Amino acid sequence: MNTKTHALKRIEMYTDGACKGNPGVGGWGTLLRHTAQGTVHEKELFGGEGHTTNNRMELLAVIEGLKSVKTRCQIEVYTDSVYVQKGVTEWLVNWKARGWKTADKKPVKNDDLWRELDSMLGAHELSWHWVKGHAGHVDNERADELANRGVEKMRAQS
C-alpha cells in the first residue's frame, strides 16, 4: 500500500467583475495560473449578462473560475471585491445560520449565487485574498480586462 500523500496542484485565480451602469451590462473575468514541470500554464475566462450588477459579476467570476477546475486543487483566490472576500470568509456562515438573512433580518442579496458558491467551497482547498483594484496589480488588471471583454461581448450580442 502506498502511503505517500499526493500534493494538490496549486492554482492562482484572479477574478474581477465589471458593470456599465449598476444595474447595467456586466462582465466577469477570471485568470487561472499554475506551474507544472517548470512551465507556467494560464487560462483566461470571461462572460457577462445584459442586465446585472457589479456584485453579481464579481461572484460569477469566482463561480465560473471554480467550475473550470475539474480536480481537487489548492486554489489561491485573489479578488478586489470586499463583498466577495468578506462574504466568503466572514458573512456566509451567519447568513446560512439565519436562513439566508442578514443581521438586520433582510434577505441576502444575490443569494442564488451565494448558494451556488457555497456548494462549491468544499471541492477545493481555498485561500481568499483581497487586492486593491485599479492599483497596478498586474494580474488584477488582467482580470479587469477580461471582465471588460465580457461587457463588450454582451454589448455585441444586443
Automatic annotation (TrEMBL):
<feature type="binding site">
    <location>
        <position position="80"/>
    </location>
    <ligand>
        <name>Mg(2+) 1</name>
    </ligand>
</feature>
<protein>
    <recommendedName>
        <fullName>Ribonuclease H</fullName>
        <ecNumber>3.1.26.4</ecNumber>
    </recommendedName>
</protein>
<feature type="binding site">
    <location>
        <position position="16"/>
    </location>
    <ligand>
        <name>Mg(2+) 2</name>
    </ligand>
</feature>
<dbReference type="InterPro" id="IPR002156">
    <property type="entry name" value="RNaseH_domain"/>
</dbReference>
<keyword id="KW-0460">Magnesium</keyword>
<dbReference type="InterPro" id="IPR050092">
    <property type="entry name" value="RNase_H"/>
</dbReference>
<feature type="binding site">
    <location>
        <position position="144"/>
    </location>
    <ligand>
        <name>Mg(2+) 2</name>
    </ligand>
</feature>
<keyword id="KW-0378">Hydrolase</keyword>
<keyword id="KW-0255">Endonuclease</keyword>
<feature type="binding site">
    <location>
        <position position="58"/>
    </location>
    <ligand>
        <name>Mg(2+) 1</name>
    </ligand>
</feature>
<comment type="subunit">
    <text>Monomer.</text>
</comment>
<dbReference type="GO" id="GO:0043137">
    <property type="term" value="P:DNA replication, removal of RNA primer"/>
</dbReference>
<dbReference type="InterPro" id="IPR036397">
    <property type="entry name" value="RNaseH_sf"/>
</dbReference>
<keyword id="KW-0540">Nuclease</keyword>
<dbReference type="InterPro" id="IPR012337">
    <property type="entry name" value="RNaseH-like_sf"/>
</dbReference>
<comment type="similarity">
    <text>Belongs to the RNase H family.</text>
</comment>
<dbReference type="GO" id="GO:0003676">
    <property type="term" value="F:nucleic acid binding"/>
</dbReference>
<feature type="domain" description="RNase H type-1">
    <location>
        <begin position="7"/>
        <end position="152"/>
    </location>
</feature>
<feature type="binding site">
    <location>
        <position position="16"/>
    </location>
    <ligand>
        <name>Mg(2+) 1</name>
    </ligand>
</feature>
<dbReference type="GO" id="GO:0000287">
    <property type="term" value="F:magnesium ion binding"/>
</dbReference>
<keyword id="KW-0479">Metal-binding</keyword>
<comment type="function">
    <text>Endonuclease that specifically degrades the RNA of RNA-DNA hybrids.</text>
</comment>
<dbReference type="GO" id="GO:0004523">
    <property type="term" value="F:RNA-DNA hybrid ribonuclease activity"/>
</dbReference>
<dbReference type="InterPro" id="IPR022892">
    <property type="entry name" value="RNaseHI"/>
</dbReference>
<dbReference type="Pfam" id="PF00075">
    <property type="entry name" value="RNase_H"/>
</dbReference>
<keyword id="KW-0963">Cytoplasm</keyword>
<dbReference type="GO" id="GO:0005737">
    <property type="term" value="C:cytoplasm"/>
</dbReference>
